[in-house]
């Protein structure tokens, strides 16, 4: 365990997931072998962790908590991006900023909250992507839906079978709708896919694989590696944010496999190196992965800092990717230090620690 009862390996997995997200964003080709493996696991693992840590609670109480922990950071991040974009529109000579577009368009992008540019379902409107924070909306809706399903089905004699079948049906419906109708607003396509991964995390906790013997965990690890590798063998691409893949079964199996690999490695790291300060720092980065995600969206949409750095280094893919990783990790770390010192913003981004004075149901 880490500080205040936190689970160290969970924060390590979150840190690994964020690094994979950054790595994916820095790739020259997201459809290459590295991109295939990274995009199979970098988002699903967060939903699996949410399912692993899930505990049933009253829906209204859950919605209040999720509102402060997910929706408030989303709204504040959107406000910051729109504001910086507006500044760039009026002062185009500021070289470290870039514009998202006209303010009205920026507000619409923030409202629809999707991760990839696309036509919204049942309309001809093409919405622009908001960036990585689409994940916050998807996790909000997915968590509520998952809690409701557990409440409705837990008293059934065949609870596990029923929940598995319904989760699979919801997932398949999301993939079908994304292909048939285009994209739903507020990242609902991703939210529906997330249910199967939350259910998988819930099952992993029931199976208690992290407390098995090392031999058993090694066997599971090898099986999980093979599952993850299926995506590479069959060249399966999985775009979680708008529910698109060229092979649904393998995409889901591979995502579970890769996530289990990350989990078991993190468990072993905790067992062997939990006293090392470096591990504690990595876990701290995972603990505040939400802030990292928000800073990544701000950087991708309205900051032009990294582009200036890249223009001054050799145009070699490995060097550029390494530089981007260092930059994308450094930016949220610096932001975390600064944001914790600003009263209102620290309540927005670190709400579990610094709740608003009026906030109900924080604990």
Concise structural overview:
The chain has 363 residues and is mainly alpha-helical.
Describe this entry's structure for a reader:
- The protein has 363 residues and is mainly alpha-helical.
- The mean pLDDT is 90.
- The longest helix has 32 residues, at 59-90.
- The strands form two sheets. The chain has a two-stranded antiparallel ribbon.
- Helices cover 68% and strands 2% of the residues.
- The protein contains 15 helices and four strands.
- The two termini are 20 Å apart.
Helix tally equals 15
For the termini, the CA-CA separation is 20 Å
Average pLDDT, rounded to a whole number, is 90
Helix content: 55-70%
> How many strands?
4
Rg from Cα: 20 Å
What is the H/E string? HHHHHEEHHHHEEHHHHHH
SS strand fraction? under 5%
- Record the strand order, biggest sheet: 1-2
Which segments are poorly predicted (pLDDT under 50) over 5 or more consecutive residues? none
Shape: globular
Structural class: mainly alpha
Biggest sheet, open or closed, and with what strands and sense? 2 strands, antiparallel
